[in-house]
Specification:
Elements lengths: L31 H27 L6 H34 L3
């Protein structure tokens, strides 16, 4: 038995007005994959900023060490959140695979 992947498509409401007015076109909503890609990109940016500030600290170019610590903590919290979301997604997938059809 072959299992097909779920297709995530946004629901679009389509209705015609009987009054004759035109409705403005709404911008397309980003997909789940685009949200995910954007979030991972932001985590990557936080990591890069933390590394850049750490290197600047080692070179003696940073006057306020609290900036380096704050950037490091932001990156650490973002990575922890990303890992927690990944673990929950894997756990949900495993739970679905254990279900008997």
């Amino acid at each position: 038995m072959e299992i097909e992947a779920l297709q995530m498509t946004p629901v679009k409401m389509r209705a015609e007005s009987h009054l004759g007015e035109e409705q403005p076109q709404q911008a397309a909503l980003p997909t789940f994959g685009e949200y995910l890609k954007d979030a991972i990109g932001q985590v990557n940016d936080l990591q890069k900023e933390s590394e850049r500030l750490g290197a600047a600290l080692a070179a003696g170019q940073v006057e306020d060490i609290s900036q380096v610590i704050i950037a490091g903590e932001k990156a650490d919290i973002a990575v922890q959140l990303t890992l927690a979301v990944r673990n929950k997604a894997v756990e949900a997938y495993q739970e679905i695979m254990r279900m008997q059809v």
